[in-house]
Design goal:
alpha/beta; 4-stranded mixed sheet; 4 helices; 33% helix
């Protein structure tokens, strides 16, 4: 038993015979308002000038339709969407690992990277790792993470405050 053929899915705006309303407000190729008219009549006028009747604003009452070349309209819309996708920046989460007894120079080096990542618009996950007896001195790790949060206060906000997860303490910073 075969399934009955369904009409093809229409991507983009409705045009010509796919417009469902009886009447539409028509705008010609020069941007002039021709007023409200029957859809059939508007399609015939668009065909006379060699264009399609494209529904621009389907939610208006009555819907607004314009004389356009549907192929060119879809092509330009696709190009615009591709351009926006290209320009969009995805925010990554960068991780910086530290120890509770970190030396000053090592701390400064890691802070330079934190500032660089935040400047690039990425989130930074600062991980404080505890080994052995360091677990008994959680306040040392907390002090280092508070120092990190204090030094980056102008350029970042603390998204996730320091918390323990097993043998490590985590904090997440995001750019302002």
């Amino acid at each position: 038993m075969r399934r009955p053929l369904a009409p093809p899915q229409l991507s983009g705006p409705r045009y010509n015979e796919f417009i469902q309303s009886q009447k539409v407000r028509v705008i010609d190729e020069n941007g002039e308002n021709l007023g409200v008219m029957y859809t059939r009549e508007a399609i015939e006028q668009a065909a006379e000038v060699g264009l399609d009747l494209v529904e621009i604003s389907p939610n208006a009452d009555p819907p607004v339709a314009k004389f356009l070349d549907i192929g060119r309209f879809k092509y330009e819309a696709q190009k615009k969407a591709n351009e926006q996708r290209k320009r969009q920046k995805t925010q990554e989460i960068k991780e910086i690992k530290m120890r509770p007894n970190i030396d000053d120079h090592d701390y400064e080096t890691k802070m330079k990277k934190v500032v660089e990542f935040l400047g690039d618009g990425d989130k930074v996950k600062v991980t404080m790792r505890f080994r052995g007896r360091e677990m008994a001195h959680g306040q040392l790790g907390m002090a280092v993470l508070q120092r990190v949060a204090g030094e980056t206060a102008e350029i970042a906000k603390v998204e996730a405050h320091p918390r323990m997860e097993g043998r490590q303490m985590l904090m997440v910073l995001s750019p302002k």
